[in-house]
Amino acid sequence: MAVKDHRVLVAGCGSIGKRHAACLYDIGIRQFVFFDPDPERSRELAATYGGTTVAEYEEGLETDTDSVYLLSPTRLHIPQAVAAVEHGKHVFTEKPLSDSPDGAAELERLAAERGRTVAVGFCFRFHDGVRRLIKTVRSGEIGRTVSVRAMMGEHFPDVRPDYLSTYYVKYSGAFELVHDLDLAMYIAGAEPEEYHGICGSYSGLGFESPDTVELILRFPECSASVHLDFFQSPRTRTLSVLGTEGQAVLEFPSWDEYTLRTYGRKSGEWKTETGKTERNDMFRAESENFFAAIEGREAVMCPISEAVKSLKVTYGVQNGCSPTAH
């Protein structure tokens, strides 16, 4: 089946729904059904990209769509995915998979039983800079990986001026920045044997949920530390891999460019590479991977089993601390 022949139900037409709809259109999707609790949002996307709208999610599942994009609040992902698979749909869900591991195993079992593809949107696995970093690490240039360090922070009011009305502020907070934990675990190549974390609301920005998260993880052959926050200015995103023979540091705070610096003990010098990116590149790439997986041409880059690894950590840490606003 050609990509243009797929029929997609887009569930959730807010900011991330708009981005995915644009990227789906870019890769050739032309048959859409849109749903959002706010019908005006659905009508806006239908007017922009063509397609129809439905008043309820369940109504959308009754249409002749073959795939569902879940771009709804985190807590809805697993129940909505289960319902979609039960209706014979393939599912792409935004990250995180959920706010709890509950139901993930059942979703994975059901998808396998029904022969449906489920992919989780950890789009930074498709980022050109991340791919180049991982290629460097796997080449052996810096030796065996000993430690992975990730930092991500941004001033959420700058990103979403309406942030106080978002569910992020109510229950998930900086744990929504789980991309960077996923990347650290992806590079480590294993589930952690042990992890510890603290979280809290310290910025005074009105978060009821944590605006700061600090994580330390121990893997069989390396360790990792991850910092996430929703108050930092300017926006910062770095991913460092320390090896027995050097290190590689990726700086990618901007959506438009990145810098990869590599130091090898043999050369005794730093090597610097830069690259240009477009934010939607990785969204288009993950969707292309999703449809290729449906058609049996590729494996899903981030299946349920991968997404659950970071979810177990965030759930464990979030439920082991009591954020207090300061």
Automatic annotation (TrEMBL):
InterPro entries: Gfo/Idh/MocA-like_OxRdtase_N (IPR000683), Gfo/Idh/MocA_Oxidoreductases (IPR051450), GFO_IDH_MocA-like_dom (IPR055170), NAD(P)-bd_dom_sf (IPR036291). SUPFAM superfamilies: Glyceraldehyde-3-phosphate dehydrogenase-like, C-terminal domain, NAD(P)-binding Rossmann-fold domains. Residues 7-122 form the Gfo/Idh/MocA-like oxidoreductase N-terminal domain. One of its GO terms (molecular function) is nucleotide binding. It comes from the Bacteria. Residues 131-248 form the GFO/IDH/MocA-like oxidoreductase domain. This is Putative dehydrogenase. It comes from Candidatus Colimorpha enterica.
